[in-house]
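step=encode ok
step=design start
structure_in=
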């Protein structure tokens, strides 16, 4: 019987070690340690033994059962560890994959030009002023010395909301609005914004575009102040070597009125395709604020004078960056826009 016990023990231990998962292991447990298993049979057979042998055999069977249980638990533990390891391996995430680069946009070229001009003028003590895009006829025309029926209105046909309300054709109405609000004659403003005209769109025209207006009003402002300011602006925007030229012009809201040209930044003045062989590039309009405009805003034009100027933002950007079609600014083609990536912080 002792021999049978030994054999049985070897057999069970071997079977336990051969199991590959907890289900198999459980089957072995039931088969050998269960009520119908061989160990139970052995215990039942003890009755046939002599009283001297009985305790000895009892001890052996218990010892065996203990050993088997121990090995069984160890193996169960091992199987469980294995299962966890396998699961972890199958669920592993490769964290070493490099991340996807996020595309960062850049400022629109028009915003860039506006901000650059704002910075320049704020450095000279100007404030940035804004006005409504849907404007009154009064501010867009009347207050700027363009009464109803004035022929110069023809050049600035626009979209009318009603007889008296329209989409502004220039940023000049902000001049009138600001002067009207200011107490005392000390105005120094720069006004960027959208403007509208009843134009057919082509490479150089758009029914909506941007302008920047400048206005300085105080006692003793002279034409030379305008010239010095524009000279500084030209050099800052287009290079220190630029020279400016003022030509007589006409605007109803300035007297005298001028058109400012800069010496060509491509050929330096000798003539090329950018300056159409003239050596000069037209950049903006300006002049001394017309006495009627000052009077309408409530100033005494015998005491107070001022200068004003206005420019197209798209035109400045086209010249500065060599853009050949104004429509590029509005179509949102990233191939165009991404060329204006800024390198400076
Ligand atoms: N408002 C004019 C235009 O849109 C531009 C302009 C000219 C503005 C002369 C001014 C100025 O302030 O003094 O054509």
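sequence_out=
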């Amino acid at each position: 019987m002792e021999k049978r016990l030994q054999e049985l023990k070897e057999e069970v231990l071997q079977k336990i070690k051969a199991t590959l998962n907890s289900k198999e292991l459980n089957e072995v447990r039931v088969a050998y340690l269960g009520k119908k298993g061989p160990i139970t049979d052995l215990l039942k057979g003890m009755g046939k033994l002599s009283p001297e042998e009985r305790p000895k055999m009892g001890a052996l069977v218990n010892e065996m059962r203990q050993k088997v249980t121990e090995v069984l638990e160890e193996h169960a533990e091992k199987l469980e560890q294995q299962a966890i390891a396998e699961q972890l391996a199958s669920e592993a995430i490769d964290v070493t994959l490099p991340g996807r680069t996020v595309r960062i946009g850049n400022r629109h070229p028009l915003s860039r030009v506006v901000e650059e001009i704002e910075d320049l003028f704020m450095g000279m003590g100007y404030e940035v002023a804004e006005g409504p895009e849907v404007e009154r006829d009064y501010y867009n025309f009347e207050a700027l010395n363009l009464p109803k029926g004035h022929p110069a209105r023809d050049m600035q046909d626009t979209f009318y909301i009603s007889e008296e309300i329209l989409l502004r054709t220039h940023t000049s109405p902000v001049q009138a609005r600001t002067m009207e609000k200011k107490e005392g004659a000390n105005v120094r403003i720069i006004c960027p914004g959208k403007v509208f005209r009843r134009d057919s769109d082509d490479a150089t025209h758009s029914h909506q575009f941007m302008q920047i207006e400048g206005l300085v009003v105080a006692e003793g402002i002279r034409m030379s102040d305008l010239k010095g300011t524009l000279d500084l602006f030209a050099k800052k925007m287009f290079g220190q070597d630029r020279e400016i030229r003022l030509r007589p012009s006409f605007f109803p809201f300035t007297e005298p009125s001028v058109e400012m040209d800069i010496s060509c930044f491509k050929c330096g003045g000798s003539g090329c395709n950018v300056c159409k062989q003239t050596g000069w590039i037209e950049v903006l309009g300006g002049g001394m604020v017309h006495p009627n405009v000052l009077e309408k805003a409530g100033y005494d034009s015998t005491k107070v004078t001022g200068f004003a100027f206005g420019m197209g933002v798209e035109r400045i950007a086209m010249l500065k960056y060599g853009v050949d079609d104004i429509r590029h600014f509005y179509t949102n083609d990233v191939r165009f826009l991404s060329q204006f990536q800024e390198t400076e912080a």
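step=design ok
step=annotate ok -> Residues 53-91 form the longest helix (39 residues).
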